[in-house]
TrEMBL record:
It comes from the Eukaryota. The chain crosses the membrane at residues 33-54, 74-97, 109-128, 134-161, 168-187, 221-247, 259-287. This is Transmembrane protein. Coiled coil: none annotated. The keyword Methyltransferase does not apply. It comes from Cinnamomum micranthum f. kanehirae.
Length: 318
């Protein structure tokens, strides 16, 4: 399958972006996407859902009280913190691997260049440092934003405690929540598009973040809907998993029902992550087309082949 013509991208609606993203999977290199899903996206999805199940049952089995830190429980709390570290490490690693392989594969399809799982794997060592640098800048921006939030929140709560107007408190809370959500969605939109820029353009890191902001101009509403849609679906899957699988025994839900629902939710989350990764690649081409920027496919092919050749050259010298 080939991508649609460049000039048609700017006319794609949100529904068309998702439809085109889904159509790429079975009609072009299905074997490649199958192995990417099996190797990276499935472990990422299992990590998301499995961590909540593990921690809940450890706390319940050990009868831990989060409000009490008895000396006899230090080891157990340390072990939970260790699991937390492993969880973040797995999410970070598989997120970067899923992102790098999906961007490389979709870009190869766009250029009508042959792609395979082996060539995609060969490109990872060259792509990961660029994505990592961009992720670091995103993390720094998110850290500054959260620091401001945590500093301002206690002050605002202190002011609210002095007023007896419930309407005023609700209005302030709604304003704070809306501001937090808007900034979070904006940062996520910039970072996701910057990840694609880091692979398909010469810049990465802070330069990719700035480039992403330029591309998002005029398409921020589309980006926000895509991010909010993903967040909503992810929240619904997590909620269903928590109620049925994690706490199912408390609601007297049968074991086989919990297992079946758990498997279905994992499959749904895998599909959501796969389509989401492809959609952010398609959205990059939509933004390029909207700004009347054409992509020289010969240059892009050279860039993609360069990622693979660097790996092959290093291996031949070893």
């Amino acid at each position: 399958m080939e991508f649609i013509a460049d000039e048609e991208f700017q006319h794609l609606s949100l529904a068309s972006i998702l439809k085109h993203s889904i159509a790429i999977i079975p009609k072009s290199s299905p074997k490649t996407f199958f192995f990417i899903t099996l190797s990276f996206i499935l472990p990422l999805s299992l990590t998301f859902l499995g961590y909540a199940y593990l921690i809940y049952h450890l706390v319940d089995h050990w009868h831990l009280d989060p409000s009490s830190f008895a000396k006899s429980q230090y080891f157990k709390y340390t072990l939970i913190l260790f699991y937390q570290f492993l969880y973040l490490l797995f999410v970070f690693a598989f997120s970067l691997l899923s992102t790098s392989t999906s961007i490389f594969s979709v870009a190869s399809i766009y250029t009508s260049n042959s792609t395979s799982f082996s060539s995609t794997i060969s490109a990872i060592p060259s792509i990961l440092p660029r994505l990592f640098c961009t992720f670091v800048w995103f993390s720094l921006l998110a850290l500054v934003y959260n620091a401001v939030l945590y500093i301002c929140a206690p002050v605002i709560l202190l002011v609210l405690s002095e007023t007896r107007s419930i309407e005023f408190c609700i209005a302030v809370f709604f304003a704070l929540f809306s501001s937090f959500l808007l900034v979070h969605v904006y940062l996520m939109s910039v970072w996701q598009l910057a990840s694609v820029v880091s692979v398909l353009e010469p810049t990465y890191g802070l330069g990719a973040m700035k480039r992403s902001r330029v591309l998002l101009h005029g398409k921020m509403m589309y980006a926000s809907v895509l991010v909010l849609g993903y967040m909503f679906m992810w929240a619904m899957i997590s909620l269903a998993f928590a109620v049925v699988v994690v706490h199912g025994e408390e609601y007297e839900i049968g074991l086989w029902v919990r297992i079946l629902v758990g498997v279905v939710l994992v499959v749904v989350l895998v599909a959501l992550n796969l389509v989401g990764l492809i959609a952010q690649n398609v959205f990059y081409f939509v933004c390029k087309s909207f700004h009347l920027e054409s992509i020289d496919k010969s240059v892009l092919i050279g860039l993609l082949e360069g990622y693979v050749k660097v790996h092959v050259k290093v291996n031949s010298m070893a």
